[in-house]
Amino acid sequence: MSVVEKETIQVVQQTIGVSNLSPDVYPDLAADIEYRLREIMQEAIKCMHHSKRTAMTSDDVDTALQIRRMEPLYVGSGNSLRFKRAARSKDMFYVESKDVELREVIESPLPKAPLDTAVVSHWLAIEGVQPATPENAPLEVLLAPVDNKKPDSKEDAISGGENKTPVKHVLSIELQLYFEKVTDVTVSRSNSIIFDKALLSLATDAGLHPLVPYFVYFVAEEVTRKLNNLHLLFALMRLVRSLLENPHLHIEPYLHQLMPSVMTCLVSKNLGNKFTDNHWDLRNFTANLVGLICGRFGYGYHNLHLRVSRTLLHAFMDPTKTFSQHYGAIKGITALGPSVVRQLILPNLDSYLQFIEPEMQLDKQKNESRRQEAWRVHGALMRAAGLCIYSQLRMIPNFLSPPTHSIWKRNGKFGTANPNKRKAASMNNLMEQPLKKVATGDGSHLVKVEMQGAASGFSITRGGSDVGMPRYLPNDNMAGVNGRRDKFSASQISSIAVSRAWKKEINAGHLLPKLYEIFGQSMFHFVPSPELCNLHL
Amino acid sequence: MEEELDKAVFTYLKKRGFTQTELVFQQEKQNKNNKSDTDGSDTDVTKQILTFSQSENIPALYQDGYSKLRSWTYSSLDLYKHELIRVLYPVFIHCFMDLIAKGHLQEAREFFSSFREDHEMMHSRDLTKLEGVLSPSHLEEMEFAHSLRQSKVNIKICQYSYELLLQYLHKTQSITMLGIINEHIDFQVSPGQPSSISDDAEAFSLVGSGQDAANLINQKEIHWGLLEDSLEDRLDKSGGLLSDSEKTEGDAKEVDLDENKKKSLEGGKQGGPLKKLKKDKVGGGPGKGARGDGDKAASAPRVKPELALPTVPTDVENSILEDLRNRVQLSNSTLPSVCFYTFINTHNGLNCSSISHDGSLVAGGFSDSSLKVWDVAKLGRMSSSIIQGENDAAPSENTLGSNVGKRAYTLYQGHSGPVYSASFSPFGDYLLSSSADSTIRLWSTKFNANVVVYKGHNYPVWDVQFSPVGHYFASASHDRTARVWSMDRVQPLRILAGHLSDVDCVQWHVNCNYIVTGSSDKTIRMWDVYTGNCVRIFIGHRCSILSLAMSPDGRYVASGDEDGTIMMWDVSNGRCITPLVGHTSCVWSLAFSCEGSLLASGSADSTVKLWDVNASAKPPKSEDTKSGSINRLRSLKTLPTKSTPVYSLRFSRRNLLFASGSLSTNV
Predict the structure, then answer these.
(1) With contacts defined as CB-CB under 8 Å, which chain A residues touch B635?
(2) How far apart are CA A495 and CA A449, in angstroms?
(3) A1 has a chain B CB within 8 A of its CB
């Protein structure tokens, strides 16, 4: 009769320890329990509604009990309770209560604080039409049947239905307009302020995601079609950069479409008018872009690095290609980072320089522009090598610490003492000894290298090019020297520390003299110093 | 003992006229005597029968039994109440007639007069007839009473209600009532859920107030017009003038305003029929034609306020006039723009939200007893200024630089239970909140502090609403009353009692003379604030009412219920115009656009729907022909949110629709 079974009452009776209950009271008790349950549920439903919910929680029952002036149950709030079926009986359920190790609770890290409540606003509708912003429900829902439609809107409904089936996503009119405007500005008025604004919007606006494939396609199309229009190419690259900068866009799936156009702008034979346009700037800009892309997506996109560097190396190593292509390739590789430079450019440096040498000299290459191009390439190479050096030297601790005046002086004496030894030593160490041996070399060897570094540093100082330049070198150098000659314990320790640090980056020690061989003194501009950091990075 | 008992039984049987039973009883008694075995009969039964026989002679027992049954019925579960209440009337009249029949005339009269009111609404004719019954002989003579005594009343009732009733009768041992019920009522017990109220309205449908009763109440006169001399009126006048004179003559406007005031005052003094006043206005408003036909509010009659209304500061008044001038005219072809405020990270704790009239402030009431107010103007530059206004730390406002808890909102702490409702004053300078701790609190949004605590309700206060002019407010509570308050008194001005279950929502009439309440008893009532009387009952919803809205012309009430049905009621005649079906879940909020042409509804099914009011509510022509129900309110537009149930809606004075809701993650 009642929804509460006799057995249920018996179970409850047992659990609370009442034994002397005559079976006659069960029906009455059951009826009363059912009534009370209904009563509490009625109040709980009211609480639920006034909490603007459509699913009841244990909080509602607690509040209902409070309304009835009864002690709440204080079960966990929310819907964390899970009822389990008892093993033997089929109608019995219980709430599992686990034993919790107190120590574990105490020792476990505090859970993250829940995020604080906030209010965000958006336009649900503008004059009755829902804009297709990410905050609003997708368009498909919009097309859901609306009863009592006006007769003239029937066509809309039909076309809407047709749209839904084959096309995966529909661009809203707003987005279409936006796309049209941006592409129009890119093509025709890339010098105007509007274009800058457009780029800013591309770099910051959320909700442009549906347009990404269209933009990528647009860039690819325009690049292939208008290779001789430098302005346009530049504008396109800036557009790509803005897209990359937008934190709300996921451009990764479209990289494979985007990279060819970018690479084209970097290593293409002719960009714009060969003689009148400054395509070097475009290549520089694009190289940075490539660096940005590889830096951001290199990890997620496993063969991106490989493919980019292969393409670039190919362009770099091909003597039939023009100097501007070489330039682009070198710039690109430089942008990929010093380690790539070390692996791809440095091993080929000698041979390439031999190839380029005749082109650079006035007497051998009569063509003015060709000579200039060669010099540009040479400059790019120099920069690549220099940045490589810089990054390696920068890894060394103490390198940048300012020296004391006395050391500087003493070192100066020391440095001037053996200026002639410099070249020979560097030749010996770097060109003839295999790398591996150097890497495992002991402290004394290391010091030798440093001495050369110090000496070279001075050569510049004497030249008066930069006073701040040698400051860091003497410090290490002195430590090394002292370590060998005077066995000062303190300097010994620092020497060991330095040698440890150098073991990995010992190459830098080689590189510097070697590159000095090739590029001369200008290489020392790349040796890191606090002042120059700003200049070269 | 035995003989006494027998005697009692005999007298009973005789009185009842159970002659056959009497015979059988006599035979049995003789048999018993013959056997002469006095096997101690059940003493309990003996006692019961004895008390029963005695009680028959005590008319007070009737009175007592009936009043107990009545109060039990009124406090029974909402779901079954309306069925149980049907039982009361037959019990009442038979109690009365029993008393008469037994000759307790005086007591019968007392009994009749004390409970007469309950049934006055529904059975007033029967009651006037029965009133004339003054002696036992009348019962025999009177055709009506005679037929009542002879026939049984059929009452449909569901299984559980029946059980409840029987349980009650047994438990309380109210044998008198049990006797009457057994004798005169024929229960048709149906299994399953209780029948819906409106299914058989013509039977004993509602509590003390069925359809008849409601009709009776709904015949009362009601002045549903707008307040005279409202700001809109002034705008009509001044707006027309301004457009004529290219807004150059600011002074002229002032003069015009004054004239307008005088005129309306005179109109009020005349005390003539409203229609005359209305005609006056129509004739005198040259700018009206330009404002279009859609503005129904303009054609509504004007009434005088019955309450002392607060004065509006001139600067506020001017800003409102400015808003009114810039109002966008909405119609079924020009839909409003909707700005949606989404509460995120609420962890299911948001109970209610409220938006100020200009949309610049958004308040949220939470189940953790807190009330939080966001200044939407500052939302954009969230990081810049952080004001923390705690109840006890009001001066912290001065030290803006101190990052005392980086909050983007103002936290109001004070309640000790879930906050169920919040309401901004018309000018946004005060905020009211109601809570499960049975208090209402008034907060100043200028000082970020609690100003007054209104204690009066005994149970959770479900809803609180400021009147359209401010100063007064109304509250609705679990204690089945609605109360009217003014800001400067901690005691309620009026207690509106009459609902048979929780009052769930409350709304003011635009002219402040009436309030409308919706209840879990599935009815909507309209109350005269001045007299405190119920002036309208709207019956038709099939489940509890969750939201109410008043049309700007004061003529229509819209109500939304648990099932997602919205109903429009005509205040002037108390009829339902048409149900609006479309929502699939609870309708949390309703709002009329400022000129009354659109109705917006927000629901738990995560949509905002816009309805065309004009399509159905074509004023009065159709009233007499009853064709009102033929017109259907049209659903103009459904605006779905991603997964945000819509908690509140508000049309700004410029007709921009603001909506708010809490993003629900577990959908």
Answers:
(1) 146-148
(2) 13
(3) yes
Q: How far is B513 from chain A (nearest CA, A)?
A: 27
Of B337, B351, B407, the CB nearest to A51: B351
Which positions in chain A touch B335 (Cβ < 8 Å)?
125, 127-129
Nearest CB to B641 within list A38, A42, A124: A124
**CA angle, corner A248, sides to A247 and A250, nearest 5?**
95
* Contact indicator for B306, B634 with CB cutoff of 8 Å: no
Give the whole-angstrom CA distance, residue A331 versus residue A287.
6
DSSP character for A108? S
Residues of A in Cβ contact (< 8 Å) with B372: 117
Q: Is A22 on the interface with B (CB under 8 A)?
A: no
> Which ipTM score applies to this complex?
0.70
> φ, ψ for residue B528 (rounded to 5)?
-85, 120
DSSP secondary structure, B571-636, as one string: TTTTEEEEEE---SS-EEEEEE-TTSSEEEEEETTSEEEEEESTTT---SGGGTTTGGGTS-PEEE
Flag if B504 and A46 touch (Cβ within 8 Å). yes
Contact B343 A49 (CB under 8 A): no
Tens place of pLDDT per residue across chain A (537 aa): 567 778 888 888 888 888 787 888 888 888 788 888 888 888 899 999 999 988 888 888 888 998 888 888 876 655 566 777 777 777 777 777 778 888 888 888 888 887 888 888 888 888 888 887 777 776 544 443 433 333 333 333 333 333 333 444 567 788 888 888 888 888 887 778 888 888 888 888 877 878 888 888 888 888 888 877 888 888 888 888 888 888 777 777 788 888 888 888 888 777 776 666 677 888 888 888 888 888 888 777 777 878 888 888 888 888 788 888 888 888 888 888 877 887 887 777 778 888 877 777 777 667 777 778 888 888 888 888 787 777 777 665 444 444 444 444 444 444 444 444 444 444 444 444 444 443 343 444 433 434 444 434 333 333 333 333 334 444 444 444 443 444 445 555 556 655 655 554 555 556 666 666 666 666 666 665 554 444 444
The chain A residue lying nearest B359, using CA atoms, is A121
SS3 (DSSP) at A74: coil
Q: Which of A66, A115, A119, A140 is the best substitution to test chain B (most B C-beta atoms within 10 A)?
A: A119
List, for residues B289-324, the tens digit of each pLDDT value: 334 444 455 566 777 777 788 877 788 888 888 888
Measured between CA atoms, how close is A77 to chain B, in angstroms?
10
Consecutive H or E run containing B46: helix B43-55
Nearest-angstrom CA–CA distance, B397 and B450 = 15
- Put simply, the answer to whether A125 touches B164 (Cβ < 8 Å) is no
- Which alpha helices (DSSP H) does A318-404 contain, by range? 323-336, 338-344, 349-360, 368-394
pLDDT at A522 (0 to 100): 64
CB A148 to CB B635 under 8 A? yes
| 364-383 in chain B: CB under 8 A from chain A | 364, 366-367, 372, 374, 376, 379
Region B13-31: mean pLDDT is 73
H or E stretch at B338: strand B338-344
**Are the CB atoms for B504 and B546 separated by under 8 Å?**
yes
User: Using a CB-CB distance cutoff of 8 angstroms, which residues of chain B are in contact with residue A59?
Assistant: 367
How big is the A-B interface in CB pairs under 8 Å? 165
Which residue from B600, B515, B558 is spatially nearest to B567, judged by alpha carbons?
B558
- 389-448 in chain B: CB under 8 A from chain A: 407-409, 417-418, 420-421, 436
CB contact at 8 A, B513 and B223:
yes
Backbone φ and ψ for A119, nearest 5 degrees, come out as: -120, 130
Please indicate if any CB of chain B lies within 8 Å of the CB of A113.
Answer: no
